[in-house]
Amino acid sequence: MTRKERAALACEELEKLYPDVECSLVYDKPYELMFATRLAAQCTDARVNIVTETLFKKYPTLEAFAGADLAELEQEVKPCGFYHTKAKSLKEMAAQLIERFGGEVPQTMEELLSLPGVGRKTANLILGDVYGKPAVVTDTHCIRITGRIGLTDNKEPAKVEKDLVKLLPPETSNHFCHQTVQFGRDICKARKPDCGNCSLSYFCRYYAKNSK
């Protein structure tokens, strides 16, 4: 079976399981998704959502974030970990969005990557979820699952992204990545995947190797 064939089967099976899945981060404005994704580094989306519920009310605009007292902002984001770096990023992101982009979140990969604290994962999430563009968000679940089922042999996010871009239909690539996240939480867990209840097992390389 070719990787392209495996990818088609994975898309088909995940669509059956999670036809309506969306990003689990809660946001109303495009920049809020960017900020929430920054806070989600080394932190669960569930915890980020608890923090941002208060955070986005306290700082309701980009101007409020840009002008925030750094020490106070650090305390607000502290539950997400790495709070010194993350708070500094939010302030800098807000200032640059105002100064360079007129308060709008840019729509190109190059411009997004020019912002402090924004990597390819965040940029792809913005492009896919906010602007509806083809995007591949290679978070830990996506990397683990696509590796197990045989779509990639790489572990580095950028290399996995490059592999998946060749295999996934552009119009559904972003949705596929959200589906892998939920699938990773429910079934294909890192330490103990529930292969017995997995509808992808019939073409999964990991299952074929470990079920013998």
Characterise this structure.
The radius of gyration is 18 Å and the shape is elongated. It contains 12 helices and no strands. It has 212 residues and is mainly α. Helix 5 (70-77) packs across helix 6 (83-101) and helix 9 (140-149) packs across helix 11. It folds into 2 domains: 3-20 and 141-206, Helix-hairpin-Helix base-excision DNA repair enzymes (C-terminal) (Endonuclease Iii, domain 2); 30-130, Hypothetical protein, domain 2 (Endonuclease III, domain 1). The chain has helices at residues 3-17, 30-39, 45-58, 62-66, 70-77, 83-101, 109-113, 120-130, 140-149, 157-167, 173-186, 205-210.
What key attributes describe this structure?
212 residues; mainly alpha; Endonuclease Iii, domain 2; Endonuclease III, domain 1; 60% helix
Overall pLDDT:
97
Enumerate how many helices there are, as a single number.
12
- CATH A-level architecture of the largest domain: Orthogonal Bundle
Largest sheet at a glance? none
Identify the CATH class of the largest domain.
Mainly Alpha
Poorly predicted runs: none
Strand content: under 5%
Number of strands: 0
| Helix/strand class | mainly alpha
For the record, the count of structural domains works out to: 2
Helix/strand order:
HHHHHHHHHHHH
Span of the ends, CA to CA: 19 Å
Helix content: 55-70%
| CATH topology group of the largest domain | Endonuclease III, domain 1
Q: What characteristic shape results from the CA principal axes?
A: elongated
Please compute the radius of gyration using only Cα atoms.
Answer: 18 Å
Output the CATH homologous superfamily of the largest domain.
Hypothetical protein, domain 2
